[in-house]
What does this fold into?
Amino acid sequence: MNPPQTFQLTQRRFIRAPRERVFDAFVRIEHAREWMCPRGMSMAQCEFDVRVGGSYRFTMRARDGDQFTVGGSYREILRPERLTYTWAWQGENMPNMETLITVAFSERDGGTELVLTHSGFPSAAMCASHEDGWNSTFNRLCDLVDARGQAATVTLYGDPRSTYVRSVRMGLAEKGVKYTLQPAAPHTPEVNALHPFGRIPVLADGPIHVFETSAILRYVEEAFPGPSLLPGSIRERARGEQWVSALNAYVDGPLVRRYVLPYVFPKDGKPDRATIDAAVKEMPALFAALDAAYGTRNFLAGNGPTMADYILAPMLFYVGFFPEGKALIANYPNLVRGHAAIAERASFKDTMPPMGG
Ligand SMILES: N[C@@H](CCC(=O)N[C@@H](CS)C(=O)NCC(=O)O)C(=O)O
It folds into this structure.
């Protein structure tokens, strides 16, 4: 009888750190507990007996308290070239299977090329379900051993003059996430390859790509520790979500696409007056809605700045540069006060778009 078919995944990562350092990150418990689980999780408990035949076991804990325990035994320990160990999820609701992991470490371009082979999955779906977990886990390994830390894995593609790019930059700054800003214009081959509609921003976290500002900010919120980008209560989170959606659907169009952009990119040397004038007519109702949303607070939702504020602030910043927008905003004191509160923050000041040119 033929043995049952099994499936395997292979991942390659170039890591800017010496091979010994990368190898040790797998076998030294004090290093492993810093990275050996996907982003947004922590190592709750960890035991390593690193010798051939020795066993290991560790528990990953998600933010919501869910725990996942994995264990196995070491088959081969060849520092710094190769490590082989078994991997089995434990607990009642986990798949009952023992898989095998081989990690090969080779020196390349002053760093290490790591090749992970995770084999023995009983189904293609089970195999595929481990892909993102390893991607995210290796991002953390890079954060730990690459001298550039998170900036080695987190890249934001976009133009720093874009309102939405700035919103993400503000969220990253508020969260304390280091990143590389990769200048990229909409609808270029580079962006089209990452975003099906060719828009900016796109966030890359190693091989993981996320597009759409609100999705990116959510990813940043859940993947990284640091101050929350969301309000604390269910009601306020819904309020924040409501404003994120409304800003994208009803506010960005008239304020940015049909008011700011015709000034910034005049057609035939002249701003398109008809489009601008029509957008100006929409402004009082928009500003009144936002003013009411602020009420006596300085934020659109909750008691501190959140995603909705990071999406609105870059839009208002540009509107205030042009005469009609500037004059109209001044009639809405809560809006003025709320914007002034965000404009005070380092995340706003440090992401000023380059002007002119
Ligand atoms: N809904 C998208 C909007 C992104 C967007 O429109 N970005 C602008 C730059 S601020 C862009 O890529 N514009 C190109 C275009 O409109 O085709 C998001 O939330 O990220």
Notes: The first strand starts at residue 7 and ends at 15. The pocket of glutathione is lined by residues 162-164, 186, 199-200, 212-213, 248 (CB under 6 Å).
